[in-house]
Amino acid sequence: MSDCLFCKIGNGDIPADIVYKDEQVIVFKDISPKADVHLLMIPRLHINSLNELNAEHSALISHMMLLLPKLAKDQGLEHGFRTIINTGKGGGQEVFHLHIHLMGGTNLPGFNN
Ligand code: AMP
Ligand code: ZN
To answer: Check: CATH 1.10.1040.10 for 5-90?
Structure first.
């Protein structure tokens, strides 16, 4: 999608602090981190949100899920990490290109306060 911020990061038109990339995904630092470690994982393929996923995306989503613990380990998050996927305006989604937040560290906000 030509006017999508994360597509532009994916194809290099907009710079980002990229920590990992392969043929299917790109992982970069969130520009406004909410924790010591706050990464965003995006598929190179434009998908608006979880609402637009279908069975053709199964291998891609599996790839993304399996990568998360490896990335967390690479970031030194030995005691655990949090993943968040905001879906739709009601879910707090601001950028409509599917992304997984990977967060961790000592400043991880509490989940119930
Ligand atoms: P969401 O609310 O789930 O759509 O999250 C969007 C995230 O994208 C927010 O945490 C923003 O801080 C982050 N963000 C927005 N623009 C950029 C950018 N240019 N580079 C990196 N992260 C960004
Ligand atoms: Zn996009």
So the answer is: no
Q: Nearest CA to 6 among 46, 62, 38?
A: 46
**Ligand 1 atom 19, closest CA:** 31
Q: Which atom of ligand 1 is nearest to the CA of 29?
A: 21
Helices (H) and strands (E) counted in the chain, each on its own, are 2, 5
β-pair partners for 100: 41
- Domain spans of the chain? 5-90
pLDDT digits (tens, 9 = 90+) for 96-112: 999 999 999 987 877 76
Joined together, the tokens standing for residue 52 give 């637009």
**Which ligand sits nearest to residue 45's alpha carbon?**
2
pTM: 0.96
